[in-house]
Amino acid sequence: LPLPVSLLWxxxxxxxxxxxxxxxxxxxxxxxxxxxxxxxxxxxxALAVADGHLVWEAxxxxxxxxAPGFSPLGFCDRQLVYVTQLGAAAVDxxxxxxxxxxxxxxxxTRCVFQGGMCYVLAFPxxxxxxxRLVAIDGQTGRRVWEQVLNVQPAGEFVATExxxxxxxxxxxxxxxxxxxDTGALAGTIRxx
Length: 192
Known about the structure:
The protein is mainly β. It contains no helices and 16 strands. The strands form four sheets. The chain has a four-stranded antiparallel β-sheet with strand order 1-2-3-4, with no helix packed on it. A four-stranded antiparallel β-sheet has the order 5-6-7-8, with no helix packed on it. Strands 9-10-11-12 form a four-stranded antiparallel β-sheet, with no helix packed on it.
């Protein structure tokens, strides 16, 4: 960066955890070039890059999920999808207008965005040991497929053009490889 650097604007939150700038996954749609996205515990906000004013704010009253190394927001075409405590929802990325909501009834832990889809890892409320992998269409909010996994995730959850990769520690330390279109297990890679 060329020096000196000038501060254009700032926003002060009452608590450090109250407001956090987030870089959504996926490809930003036209019309979002002048926006920066932020989240609070229960809302998503679009702020103007030029002066920091609030352009729009959206939320459905559920906690918006955060996990270290994972963004709870992602672009799926013109939609901005966000993962909540018990599901997912989407708004128009430019206007903030609500588009859809997909309640899962599970405690969500992580998500990745790829090819217009949102892939969510979640635990059912009644049985915390059973992991679910759910594919949600980013345009409509429709569940495309769901897999029940009896594994313990170890952190890494990645989407490629054709596959999802999930690192696990139990029952073995390995990377599970799933077909993105069907959710079928395509293979495993031993770690270590």
